[in-house]
Specification:
about 15% helix; DUF2851 domain-containing protein; DUF2851; 3 helices; globular
């Protein structure tokens, strides 16, 4: 699994229509995804969420594993002080900001259909003898 897949799920609203919950069971309603950040700092700026009826505005950070937060040093980086949601594939650790406040966690692996994961894995499987990753699927494309 790669972090880019989690960005894709979030940015293209692949979790829409589902009743999302934090790992603590609090409801999450995404009002605005925020703006995708391609530079240093949190992955999405200025998101708006409702968590258990409380509206939040701030940044959203994503990792494959929650513990990557500490591996990347975000717990001691002021750029991450306004993170309101940590979106992860695997929730393997509780995380805190510099102010020692726990950040709500959304474990997206629970909400993604297996078919989407398989398509992702198939597309990005390393195949040294292919010109492009989707080479085997080109024959299935209908020509006009």
């Amino acid at each position: 699994m790669q972090e880019d897949f989690i960005h894709y799920l979030w940015k293209f609203k692949k979790l829409s229509g589902q009743q999302l919950q934090t790992t603590e069971g609090k409801s999450i309603v995404v009002k605005s995804l925020g703006t995708h950040n391609f530079h240093s700092g949190p992955d999405f700026f200025n998101g708006r969420l409702e968590i258990d009826g409380q509206e939040w505005a701030g940044n959203v950070e994503m990792h494959v594993k929650a513990s990557d937060w500490y591996l990347h040093g975000h717990d001691d980086d002021p750029a991450y002080d306004n993170v309101i949601l940590h979106v992860v594939w695997i929730h393997d650790a509780e995380i805190t900001r510099r102010d020692e406040i726990n950040i709500p966690v959304l474990e997206v692996s629970k909400y993604v259909p297996e078919s989407l994961v398989k398509s992702y894995q198939k597309l990005f499987a390393i195949k040294k003898d292919q010109f492009i990753n989707c080479e085997n699927d080109i024959a299935a494309v209908r020509w006009f």
